[in-house]
């Protein structure tokens, strides 16, 4: 079971888990805010809407399309206000 870091907190998840699932299981539903301040989170789960973007090891990715790898460091999109 790989361990990753979400916003500086260690999280262990089952093998084959997507980063989006790890975020949601850790309680993160709002991944960023719109320009008007509305909460935004994953909508499609297949990489089309891009609402699940987060920064992993310094690179912005679609978390629904990214499998967890041990040691990843995940941070939410800077400037957003999150629900956790």
TrEMBL record:
Annotated InterPro entries: 2Fe-2S-bd_N, 2Fe-2S_ferredoxin-like_sf, 2Fe-2S_ferredoxin-type
* Keywords linked to the UniProt accession: Oxidoreductase
Which GO MF terms does the UniProt record name?
Answer: iron-sulfur cluster binding; oxidoreductase activity
Is Thylakoid among this UniProt entry's keywords? no
Give the 2Fe-2S ferredoxin-type domain ranges: 1-80
Q: What is this protein's name?
A: (2Fe-2S)-binding protein
Q: Which organism is it from?
A: Deinococcus metalli
């Amino acid at each position: 079971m790989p361990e990753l870091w979400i916003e500086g907190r260690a999280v262990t998840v089952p093998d084959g888990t997507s980063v989006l699932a790890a975020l949601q299981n850790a309680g993160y539903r709002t991944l960023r805010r719109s320009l008007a301040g509305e909460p935004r989170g994953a909508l499609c789960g297949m990489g089309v809407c891009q609402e699940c973007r987060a920064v992993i090891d310094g690179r912005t990715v679609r978390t629904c399309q990214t499998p967890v790898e041990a040691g990843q460091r995940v941070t939410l999109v800077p400037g957003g206000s999150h629900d956790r």
